[in-house]
Design goal:
The structure is a homodimer of 567-residue chains.
Chain A: E1 8-12, E2 21-27, H1 35-51, E3 56-58, H2 76-95, E4 102-111, E5 116-125, E6 128-134, H3 146-149, E7 155-161, E8 164-170, H4 172-175, H5 179-184, E9 191-196, H6 204-219, E10 223-227, E11 229-232, E12 235-238, E13 242-244, E14 250-253, E15 260-266, H7 289-307, E16 313-316, H8 321-334, E17 339-343, H9 351-364, E18 367-370, H10 374-384, H11 388-410, E19 413-414, H12 420-425, H13 446-462, H14 471-475, H15 495-507, H16 512-517, H17 522-540
Parallel strand pairs in A: 1-7, 2-3, 3-4, 8-9, 9-10, 16-17, 16-19, 17-18
Antiparallel strand pairs in A: 2-15, 4-5, 5-6, 7-8, 10-13, 11-12, 13-14
Helix pairs in contact in A: 1-2, 7-8, 7-13, 8-9, 8-13, 10-11, 15-17
Binding site for deamido-NAD(+) (chains A, B): 393, 422, 538
Domain CN hydrolase (chains A, B): 21-268
Pfam family, one (chains A, B): NAD_synthase
């Protein structure tokens, strides 16, 4: 409670007779650093919203800069360019006859007391920056590093528009108790508007909506929740924007994984006076778990390609389930004709594997090349004479060289096909099958890989199309085929069991004693812990090196990979 | 000032007549997660300190757990094991007749109000944990992520020992104004004792000592500063522990880059009463810049090998300066006989390069193998028919496969030889010359590489030994030798200029306008910015992938690579 004293209460605009306010929820996909591209998209959506009669259009958190911008926020020239772009955008809106529209958009600001960046919402109106709010709660758990980068805001802001009092918040501000939202509860607001860059996790939509329902009750007003959509590096933003009534009814729900512009009108009357809360322009159904995760993976790949200027991909096709699912996802992301599938059989590859790889490529309409590795392997072995695991790794690394040759010579994004179970256990070859710029299924446990493959085939059948993934790839026993008769089960526990242990050890951070209490047998626990603990190095793949200057690559420099800013 | 109200003032022990107190500064090298090994080292140093008459021995921040422990702190079983180990250590000290000794050591604790970890100092005495203090200021800039992981302490602690009042602090607590140290200034202390895990940066020793002098004035008492030594993953801790008198005189200075046990006695009298402040047991001289950085790199490699159980290394020897300096560092870290140097000439390799590589290996006493890549290259090309950069990369990747074959078959740590200038500009081949588990010079700009090579040779001559690095490797024009007549200067600005731009762009985060104001010409600025911005992906080398579960690898899971904990 004592924290509340610290907030400065700010109002923009004048009180007046309450009138209905048509609000557009602009769920857009931005690119970090691409100020011009992002501003052009804001302008386009603002025009569309205005044509539909919207008086206020809200864009996601940091939509102008892209999100998350990581240490790019620390670059002064970037912050100045973002400020200039916001003003230029306001002027363009006015020029194009959209001066009366209130455009709420996230960007980066500067705390001039310490020259640190701020996570800022601005309101563009009548050719100028009319209002501003800075995010107060700066998450620094999980994928977030905001407390490291930004200075927190100290104001609680109400926008007076059409006689309606609109309290504002940015993302984490509604996830934490107290702070500006608690203060807004005492300021008689008619609406809580929150703009968000809320990264996707399976099933998170329900969590967000339950939270919004709670906040709606607390502030005594509906909540408009606008979320970013799209992939940015390894994060996916799923959209799913919505309006939550103060009685806990969902009034609008935008679809996940696509850009969207939906509408909802804040009525002239308030509370009982307003009568039943009105419905918005659409109510997208919830997706089932497998569909949601599959679409997340496809969008992540599609946006990674687009934002890094790749139009095609290449990958090794082994005939196994992992490369088959990745290829199916790639076909959904960029079309089969933009896929180069490479079969790289060795003396240990079964005919079945080769047939399944060719079958897959044909189903997807992908380019398909066979690059046998036997002669290459023999040439290496005539110099190196390797045995055991070193000889197995050699096969995988020859394949890595071939995949990268396709990538370099044709300008293709190389896809790595490793799944979370094998990466966790180090059951892959560094610089071998782990080669690639993007790994579409690296966060899927092996049992989930099978499940998604089955879901994708079933979905195709249900739509009257042919199944993209050969049934044999789904049903056969997994093998790396790096020696005669090899099976994954020679080295790893059964995947059904392994995945349960991994979920507990990695995702719940259970230690050995916890895992035994979970009911897993000691031998399995010790095997999995040993494998996982040893695999950290392999998973990173890049060489560590000593830090001897003030700013080295790696630990203390965190830049987005996809970054279109060049000033 | 208002923050001070929040501190609880805690005292341990009883006031009494002031007596002299002999303090040991135990500057030790620990391993993250290795509770048993670290505890054994604490016991050993405590025994040695006691034999020399010390009544208090101070170890670095988190010495019992190793530092930095990153997300390992979040594992409950680890925190319980650390608590058990501290109590076991206290009991062992008592058993071995060291019960009267006060042993100050850092470890991890738990904030039971929220089950979050704390960065804790404990005092072991008479078989028990006698006192405890929790770090208040949790850095989360640069290499630090402590605010993410730990809950901050709320106490200001004074230890009463021998009638002396000892205020305590952990590392960042003395770097920030206010907080517990400011509070200690009003508590009439005789000594400020701080335990630290302060990562090395070139020239940081002076900064630490200037800061300590300021704090000594503020609290009106000398400062004992004990720092960790050793490499942990990509961080290096340089030791250089010291005692700073309240008049700003350095009273003791431990050497950098080695474990050390030094002594200093806090006199019975205080201030004027004490007379001139007494000197400690040693006063290590400051190292010059090149020697300091060279030793830092050697220690980083040596500890990375030891803590990851490698006894030897392998690397490609091109005859160029980068691989020559790395090999010289490796010889200093593990001895030439544990180095496998591999010359991998192609049709583009000059005779000079081959001779220089052989010369280097001979000077260092390293194993030396020649693995020509021409036949391998032809075999690949008969299948792939690559040209341009793809053909150049193929050569580098064949070499990468060979280096990894040595690593796998002989159990050697593969060293990558890239320097900071070429890594920054992406002037290297992913999965090619960038292959390796450790990159000893990845934080050295190219001009610094030449400088350190000259320093190392001069140092050898001064010691009456032969120069480890062939002069030709230092003086010739740098070339990747991936096509006929290729020179680095074909693709990159002159290194003298390039390194200045890189220092401004990377280390000072200067943007384009800033760089022009720095006086660099627009063409160079644009070239360097384009190269650096495009190289982020290449530098990381591992495939990104979408995050779809609550806890994926990468962004939201930060574990140390070297980690000996398995419970």
């Amino acid at each position: 409670m004592e924290q509340m004293d610290r907030f400065e209460q700010v109002e923009y605009g004048q009180a007046g007779a309450r009138q209905a306010l048509k609000i557009a929820l602009a769920q857009i996909d931005t690119c970090v650093g691409d100020l011009s591209g992002n501003a052009a998209k804001v302008l386009d959506f603002a025009q569309r919203a205005s044509r539909e009669g919207a008086q206020l259009v809200a864009f996601p958190e940091m939509a102008l800069t892209g999100y998350p911008i990581e240490d790019l926020a620390l670059r002064g020239t970037f912050r100045r360019a973002a400020w200039d772009k916001a003003n230029e955008l306001a002027a363009q809106l006015l020029e194009q006859g959209l001066g009366e529209l209130f455009v709420v958009v996230g960007t980066v600001g500067t705390d001039h007391s310490n020259d640190l960046p701020r996570n800022r919402m601005v309101v563009l109106h009548e050719g100028a920056v009319w209002g501003a709010y800075d995010k107060h709660f700066l998450p620094n758990y999980g994928v977030f590093d905001e407390f490291r980068i930004f200075s927190p805001g100290e104001r609680s802001v109400v926008l007076n528009i059409n006689g309606q009092r609109i309290g504002v918040a940015i993302c984490e501000d509604i996830w934490q108790d107290g702070g500006p939202v608690q203060e807004l509860a005492g300021r008689n607001i008619d609406l809580l508007l929150t703009i968000n860059g809320s990264p996707y996790e399976e099933g998170k939509g329900h969590v967000r909506r339950d939270l919004a329902a709670r906040r709606a009750r607390e502030v005594g007003a509906p909540v408009v929740y606008v979320n970013q959509v799209g992939g940015q590096d390894d994060l996916i933003f799923d959209g799913g924007s919505f309006v939550m009534g103060q009685s806990g009814d969902l009034l609008e729900h935008s679809p996940q994984f696509v850009e969207d512009l939906s509408y909802w009108t804040l009525a002239a009357g308030q509370g009982d006076e307003a009568g039943p809360e009105q419905m918005g322009s659409q109510m997208a159904p919830d997706l089932d778990g497998d569909e949601e995760v599959y679409k997340a993976c496809v969008l992540g790949l599609k946006d990674y390609m687009a934002k890094n200027h790749f139009t095609g991909v290449c990958l090794g096709l082994s005939g196994g389930i992992d490369s088959a699912l990745v290829a199916a996802m790639a076909a959904d992301a960029c079309g089969g004709e933009h896929i180069w599938g490479i079969s790289m059989p060795s003396m240990y590859s079964s005919d079945g594997s080769k047939d399944d790889a060719a079958d897959l490529a044909q189903r997807l309409g992908a380019h398909y090349d066979v690059q046998a590795i036997e002669q290459l392997y023999k040439t290496f072995q005539s110099q190196l004479d390797l045995s055991g695991v070193a000889a197995e790794n050699l096969q995988a690394r020859i394949r890595g060289v071939i995949v990268m040759a396709y990538s370099n010579s044709k300008g293709l994004l190389a896809l790595a096909t490793g799944n979370k179970s094998e990466l966790a256990c180090g059951y892959s070859t560094i610089y071998g099958d782990a080669v690639g710029g993007y790994a579409p299924i690296k966060d899927l446990l092996k049992t989930r890989v099978w499940q998604l493959a089955r879901w994708r085939n079933a979905e195709a059948l249900a739509a009257g199309k042919s199944e993209p993934i050969p049934d044999a790839s789904i049903t056969k026993a997994p093998s790396a085929e790096l020696r005669e008769g090899q099976k994954d089960s020679d080295s790893l526990p059964d995947y059904e069991l392994l995945d349960q242990v991994l979920a507990a050890y990695i995702e719940k951070a259970h230690g050995r004693a916890d895992l035994l209490a979970d009911g897993f047998d000691p031998e399995t626990v010790d095997t999995v812990m040993r494998l996982v603990d040893r695999a950290e190095w392999k998973r990173r793949q890049y060489p560590l090196g000593p830090k001897v200057t003030a700013l080295a690559f790696g630990r203390d420099r965190r830049l987005p990979i996809t970054n279109a800013f060049a000033e």
